[in-house]
Design brief:
Radius of gyration: 23 Å
Oligomer: single chain
Strand content: 15-25%
Bound molecules: zinc ion
Distance between the termini: 46 Å
Helix content: 40-55%
Number of helices: 13
Length: about 400
């Protein structure tokens, strides 16, 4: 703990910047929108919306569509975001391989590219990111002079605000200032973010999160990831360490986790845990989770029990999440959901049993497939969001009155 004298002063955005951001976000996520509907959705007055919209149209962020016919009263001209106003590169950094996308301002992927890299030192990774970006720019030349920058997503503890990879076990990195390294090399704006947080941002701005102010994302695969958007904001925690659902102890007598504790969710439902459980149950050596999935789909009772147990562990963790935060939606994603048919029944039963309040249990559980490109798109969305909000902030002086 630290004493409160050492706490930094909170950063406050001016209300004009906030209003520009809120208006842009409303048109982006709910548009095309009339000025009247934009006012209703943001709580701004129609007069304020008219003032705020003007510089956003002048600078090409918003475009007016054809007038809507048949609406009573004065005809309304719907506004929408100009997708081609800005682009961002998104990179998903994995062990030995990068996946990159070029995304427009609607976060639609224009092109994508994969690149293997042999050198996992920070220098080697920056080399690879530079090469990947050059390839993407070559494929989408229209993005060149409208590039907002690069978003980079990776697993592990990432302090996005400090631009620091605090700890990335898969690369063996501690305290690597990746944002600065890439920005210095390439001369563009860069944001780095934990990959699951980046997915949550993409979901918030460009997915089903746009209709929910609060939600959680849980990803399954080699590890278990988790991110929260609460009241419209990504919740990183005080130091970027929030969302470690994977290391919540769900089975105290369970397997030892790579973090050293016993019975973590990740040790029970991560790929390695599923393979170990199957090997133990059958006395045979399994090496890949795909073998366990195939066995379960072929009716093997041991394999089916492994996934049912995983569903119980996941249900325990998710019901704790519902009990603590009461989100209206949880998005379940990641490579691991390819086997969701094998564990969802057990998961739902456990959630029903363990969630305290019946209203907290009444949560939309969305199962969403997640190819590697979508992770990279999440990183691009993080850059788009930050870059656009900064650019809009610069317009605030042009808002009349
Ligand atoms: Zn653990």
């Amino acid at each position: 703990m630290r004493d409160h004298d050492s706490l930094p002063a909170p950063v406050r955005l001016g209300s004009r910047e906030q209003h520009l951001g809120a208006l842009f976000e409303a048109v982006l996520t709910r548009g095309p929108l009339s000025r009247r509907d934009a006012a209703r959705l943001t709580g701004l007055s129609p007069a304020s919306v008219t003032k705020l919209v003007k510089p956003m149209i002048t600078h090409g962020y918003l475009v007016e569509r054809d007038r809507e016919a048949g609406v009573p009263g004065r005809p309304q001209i719907p506004l929408q975001v100009d997708a081609e106003r800005h682009y961002a590169v998104g990179v998903k950094l994995m062990e030995g391989e990068l996946v990159g996308v070029m995304a427009d301002l609607h976060a639609e992927v224009q092109s994508s590219h994969r690149l293997k890299y042999p050198d996992t030192s920070p220098e080697g990774v920056v080399d690879a990111i530079e090469e990947l970006t050059a390839t993407l720019l070559g494929r989408s030349p229209e993005a060149g002079d409208r590039l907002l920058g690069l978003g980079i997503g990776l697993g592990g503890h990432v302090d996005g605000e400090a631009g620091m990879v605090v700890h990335a076990p898969f690369l063996g990195w501690h305290d690597v200032p990746l944002q600065q390294l890439v920005a210095d090399r390439m001369g563009v704006d860069v944001v780095i973010e934990n990959d699951v947080n980046a997915l949550a941002v993409a979901e918030q701005w460009f997915g089903s999160g746009s209709t929910f102010q609060s939600f959680a994302v849980v990803t399954l695969g080699v590890g278990v990831g988790c991110a929260f958007v609460l009241d419209g904001k990504l919740w990183r925690g005080a130091s970027g360490a929030a969302g470690e659902l994977g290391h919540m102890v769900v089975t105290p007598e369970g397997r030892v986790c790579h973090c050293g504790k016993r019975g973590c969710l990740e040790a029970m439902v991560g790929d390695e845990g599923l393979v170990a459980a199957m090997s133990q149950a059958t006395g045979r050596r399994y090496t890949k989770v795909s073998q366990v999935v195939s066995a379960a789909h072929a009716g093997d009772q041991h394999a089916r029990a492994v996934f049912a147990d995983a569903g119980v562990s996941l249900g325990r963790a998710i019901s704790t999440l519902l009990n603590l935060l009461n989100p209206p939606m949880v998005v379940l994603s990641g490579e691991g959901i390819a086997a969701s048919d094998l564990f969802m029944d057990a998961l739902r039963a456990e959630v029903d049993q363990d969630t305290f309040s019946t209203s907290a249990r009444d949560c939309t559980l969305l199962v969403r497939p997640l190819p590697d490109e979508t992770w990279a798109r999440g990183a691009a969305a993080t850059m788009l969001r930050q870059g656009v909000l900064l650019s809009l902030g610069r317009l605030s002086d042009e808002v009349a009155g």
